[in-house]
Design goal:
Layout: E1 16-21, H1 25-38, E2 42-47, H2 50-59, E3 64-68, E4 70-71, E5 74-75, E6 91-95, H3 100-109, E7 113-116, H4 119-123, H5 125-162, H6 164-199, E8 205-209, E9 215-218, H7 220-226, H8 247-260, E10 264-271, E11 277-288, E12 294-303, H9 305-333, H10 336-348, H11 354-384, E13 393-396, H12 397-414, E14 418-422, E15 429-432, H13 434-450, E16 457-465, E17 468-475, H14 509-519, E18 523-527, E19 536-542
Helix pairs in contact: 10-11, 11-14, 12-13, 13-14
Length: 560
């Protein structure tokens, strides 16, 4: 029997002896050329028949046998070492076609590899041979280790038998220790199972950290939150999910806690799987052994982004509310001064005095202004609480437009605006509350007139768009900054927030407009190129099908 090769010796340091059982000479030549091209030292013995291969094996055992599955006089698997024989050598089986059943049969019989012949496979034979021999040496070493272990066990058993009487007490002690260790290991295993079950069911990210700062476990929530591959959270790669602005402060705090053992607690942002960064509260506590050494850190990350967003929204809402209350106090106080002066004047003069009528007019105007402010407050209160009931009826668009213009006409004339109205030629009928729709158009026109410098231009245009009517109110006024556009319909929001602004109003008119339009099944939006470039409000409302001549409402003229 040929001595088994040493697993410690590199394969490339000796000349390999390979027995190739192959009846196709072209394949043998390809293998020979592949070794020559790689510069591998090899002695290749080529035989074409099973009989010749057996004769070669009887003379000297090669380092490796490569055999075709089908040889002219039998199966190549017959060259595999038989169970119980004294010979042992590695075998690679090749075939011209792939068959899983044959491959399994060859591997069960003892083949180390099963190859489907192709030019690529044969050209890669030097590499395949290296891998196969490495595997073979591992098997040999494992067998040697097993044999050594068997021999050691036999020797130990002999010694135990010889000294049984002397070691009874020691064996009993050992048995008790083994039982205790089994109990400890079982308890530890159950503890780990409970920890994993708990960690993998909680909604937060749970992780453990080694004393050197490497993350060695995260529950599935980390992958679900960040979308990173499941193996990317280990070590320090989790920091790729940190917001760039917070990498340095998180690193500094983490290192400080690792050095001092202080509990870690910090709010920072992690990149969510949707690409957005979300705020999390990250906490970690050290776990210490009996010697007070830190053996592990246990921590969690809770998603608090919704809470922070809600807090931010509440702060913004509170800020807007405070501004609104200041504005409300200012607006409600403004008319009181003229009213007080007019009342004081009436006390001093008689009914026939020339300024008597002036004082009455001041009181009337300022009282009407106060009534409008209070009505707006009541409207927005009722709308936000869902207390508004629409008195719907079939109404004609031009009638609504005419009445809204009548409401706004004094302000249009006072500010000398050019005003253009364009309506469809055919009547457009809506189902709605005429008073509320007049309020909608009146508010939009009133805003456009107030926020457009004197001598400006306003347009009111209505166009059919399928089953909707589209009303556009455009002006050449102050415009709306881009950062304010998304909030113009929110309660307490105004583009101009100074208390001494000349336009007046509480900034709740657009909130009323949006709510009333939505109650009518429509929607409203706004656009503006920017400050000083005007703005445009677009209201879309559903229209009724065309009415028959007998159902047509009486036409009212529009006065411009």
């Amino acid at each position: 029997m040929k001595p088994e090769p040493s697993a410690a010796a590199p394969i490339a340091d000796t000349i390999l002896h390979i027995l190739l059982a192959e009846d196709d000479t072209s394949h043998a030549e390809l293998i020979q050329r592949a070794f020559e091209a790689q510069g591998e030292p090899v002695r290749l013995t080529v035989v074409r028949h099973l009989r010749e291969a057996r004769e070669a094996l009887a003379v000297a055992l090669p380092d490796l046998v490569i055999t075709d599955l089908r040889l002219p006089d039998g199966k190549g698997t017959e060259l595999l070492p038989q169970e119980g024989s004294n010979t042992s050598y590695p075998v690679i089986v090749m075939t011209c076609y792939g068959n899983e059943a044959i491959a399994v049969e060859a591997m069960k019989a003892g083949a180390l590899d099963y190859l489907v012949k192709s030019e690529a496979t044969l050209s890669a034979m030097p590499h395949i041979v290296k891998c196969t021999l490495s595997k073979w040496h591992e098997i040999i070493e494992r067998k040697r280790a097993q044999e050594a272990l068997r021999q050691a066990y036999a020797e130990l058993e002999t010694r135990v038998q010889e000294r049984t009487s002397e070691l009874v007490q020691a064996n009993e002690t050992l048995r008790r220790e083994i039982v205790q260790r089994a109990r400890v290991e079982r308890a530890l295993r159950e503890s780990k199972q409970r920890f994993r079950a708990l960690a993998e069911t909680v909604p937060d990210i749970v992780f453990t950290v080694c004393p050197d700062g490497r993350v060695d476990y995260t529950n599935p929530r980390f992958h679900e939150f960040t979308g990173q591959p499941c193996d990317s959270e280990k070590g320090f790669s989790w920091m790729r999910a940190l917001h760039p602005e917070e990498v340095e402060p998180v690193n500094e705090r983490r290192k400080h806690c690792l050095q001092t053992g202080e509990p870690y607690e910090m709010k920072h942002r992690l990149r969510h799987r949707d690409g957005e960064y979300r705020w999390v509260m990250c906490r970690a506590q050290p776990i210490r052994d009996e010697a007070d050494h830190i053996i592990k850190w246990f921590g969690s990350c809770s998603d608090i982004d919704d809470l922070i967003q809600a807090q931010t929204s509440l702060q913004e809402a509170d800020h807007r509310k405070n501004e609104f209350l200041a504005m409300l106090a200012h607006e409600l106080r403004n008319p009181l001064g003229p009213i007080r002066n007019a009342v004081e004047l009436l006390r001093r003069i008689g009914p026939q005095h020339p300024q008597h009528q002036w004082a009455e007019d001041v009181i009337d105007r300022q009282t009407a202004h106060l009534v409008r402010l209070v009505d707006d407050l009541l409207d927005v209160s009722r709308i936000t609480r869902g207390k508004v009931e629409l008195k719907k009826d079939t109404i004609e668009l031009s009638d609504i437009v005419a009445r809204a213009i009548e409401v706004t006409r004094p302000l249009l004339d006072e500010r000398k605006h050019a005003f253009t109205v364009t309506l469809p030629s055919a009547p457009v009928y809506l189902e709605g509350d005429s008073i509320r729709l007049i309020q909608v158009l009146g508010n939009l026109l009133n805003n456009a007139a107030k926020y457009t410098p004197k001598g400006g231009a306003l347009w009111l245009t209505a166009n059919r768009d399928g089953s909707d009517i589209e009303l556009r109110v455009r002006d050449t006024g102050l415009g709306i900054p881009a950062e304010i556009l998304p909030q113009v319909f929110d309660l307490f929001t105004q583009a101009e927030r100074t208390l001494d602004r000349s336009q007046g109003g509480l900034g709740i008119g657009l909130t009323i407009v949006r709510r009333l339009v939505e109650l009518h099944g429509g929607n409203v939006c706004v656009s503006s190129p920017g400050p000083g470039q005007g703005s445009e409000f677009v209201v879309r409302l559903p229209v009724l099908p065309e009415l028959s001549p007998t159902d047509t409402l009486p036409k009212k003229p529009i006065r411009l």
